[in-house]
Amino acid sequence: MNGQKPPDEMGDAAADELAGLETVEDPGGEVVRTLDESDFAEIVQDLSRRRWTGTLSISHLGISKRVVAQNGRLVFASSTSKDDRMGELLFRRGRLTLQQYLDAGAAVQKGKRLGAVLVEQGVLKPEDLVSVVVDHTQEVIYSLFQWTSGLCRMKPGVDEQESITLKMSTPDMILEGIRRVGAWSRIERGLGGVDSRYQRVPEWEQLAEQMTLPEKKRALLAGLERQRSVVALCADSSLPSFEVCRTLWAFRVIGVVAKQD
Questions:
Q1: Within-domain flag for 138
Q2: Range of the domain at 217
Q3: Which of 136, 221, 130 is nearest to 175 (CA)?
């Protein structure tokens, strides 16, 4: 389970849930969804299920983020937020000194991206550039899992091809994106309430092959061969209860488990 699998399938129960996402057509033919009604994780899984290719433009409070999907997988992302830029990411992580950060920013010009500047200035090795671009792209995407409001415009087709793209499976992306959500109100809503009961879907093994799961989360999935309550799962798991709930939400979105009526 290396996270490099083809785009995933989802369980029938999860597909039925996603069929009701808030969707409208704007006059230009683009599909528009609101993050107030459709959680970003659900949108990502829906695109994967439909093997959709196109561009998502997500905007809120003057910030716009662009995500490219190919055959259902998210492969590239960019943002207008200064805090999302590659230079800021490397600076926050201690990969750039303040002087390197300032020098590189001053050297960026039209047609030349920051990564190329950092290689030219000897700050990054050429062989490190791909991993830095991939990491930066992932961080922009993960930041969208935090958004709870905004408009998501979905335009089919891709105008430009990026030379460096993500190879991460959609289930792994959803797991990590939801792992970064710290709002209990969202997690509880995603679970359908703490009184909910869950069980693995019949095709769970096929879906599990697309996930890179640590041992404790794998054990959580293994324990769902029969219906179990959220409370019981939290009591039996060696994971913190908060993490059990957050993981169950991710499992539900991915479609590997289904909420039982």
A1: no
A2: 183-260
A3: 221
In-domain check, residue 228: yes
Per residue in 168-205, pLDDT tens?
999 999 999 999 999 999 999 999 999 999 999 999 99
> How many structural domains does the chain have?
1
Among 59, 121, 62, 124, residue whose Cα is nearest residue 89: 124
* Closest among 129, 119, 163, 154 to 43, alpha carbons compared: 154
Q: What is the pTM of this model?
A: 0.84
The answer to whether position 82 is within a domain reads no
The Cα–Cα gap between 181 and 251 comes to 14
